[in-house]
Design a protein that fits this description.
alpha+beta; L-fuculose-1-phosphate Aldolase; ten-stranded mixed β-sheet; 10 strands
């Protein structure tokens, strides 16, 4: 049986956790094949500066996160791990329960799940066929979303909130194509990609990034 050992209250600061998170001791680590796939894509996204942490962006907070569905919920990169080039298996948390209306998550692991974990939870709940969700920060994609004809979530909706979870579910009902990339206008440079596999998800995100660079030349 897993035993809770930490409770994190919601916060309002950009770039950190806003939901209440109950973290339990893990009785397993992320599956090796899933970890290797996510780490491969995380390396690519870090090199493209879609994931990472630098002093000159977002007040120095880490940005971007990756997740993959599990039999109990989903695995996701730990919060504020953006400065790390690679992540160990124990730097992923498994979200095992999510209440989108009360803004609470229950996770197992040694690290708290990423600050956008509630949005990941909303995506997995809205579409059982989604197996991977990647979140990056791209001024290029974000600034070119109209030219790229990408779906958007309204600028009045903040990340990590029940409103974001509800808006995400509504967006996925309207846009049924997979893989899918959408932009969160209320979360500076925020971009989400989702798909039936990690590879198709990552490929679509990189494709839209390349298209945005071409537009902005």
């Amino acid at each position: 049986m897993k035993t809770p050992h930490a409770e994190v209250p919601p916060r309002a600061t950009e770039g950190v956790v806003k939901y209440a998170s109950q973290l339990m001791k893990a009785d397993r680590l992320i599956d090796d094949a899933i970890w290797r796939t996510l780490e491969a894509w995380r390396t690519i996204l870090c090199r493209l500066r879609l994931v990472g942490q630098t002093r000159d962006r977002y007040d120095g907070f880490g940005f971007g996160n990756l997740s993959a569905r599990s039999d109990a919920g989903f695995w996701i990169t730990g919060t504020q791990t953006g400065e790390l080039t690679t992540l160990r298996e124990d730097q992923y948390a498994e979200v095992v329960d999510a209440d989108l209306e009360t803004n609470r998550l229950v996770a197992a692991g040694e690290v708290h799940p990423s600050s956008e974990a509630l949005t990941h939870a909303a995506i997995y709940a809205a579409d059982p066929g989604v197996e991977a969700v990647f979140h990056g920060h791209s001024p290029e994609i974000w600034g070119s979303h109209e030219a790229l004809d990408l779906p958007t979530i309204d600028h009045t909706i903040e990340y990590g909130t029940p409103d974001m979870a509800r808006a995400t579910a509504a967006l996925l009902e309207l846009h049924v194509e997979r893989p899918l990339v959408f932009v969160t206008l209320g979360h500076e440079d925020g971009v989400f990609a989702l798909g039936h596999t990690a590879d198709t998800t990552g490929a679509m995100l990189v494709d839209r990034f390349a298209a945005a660079l071409e537009i902005r030349r």
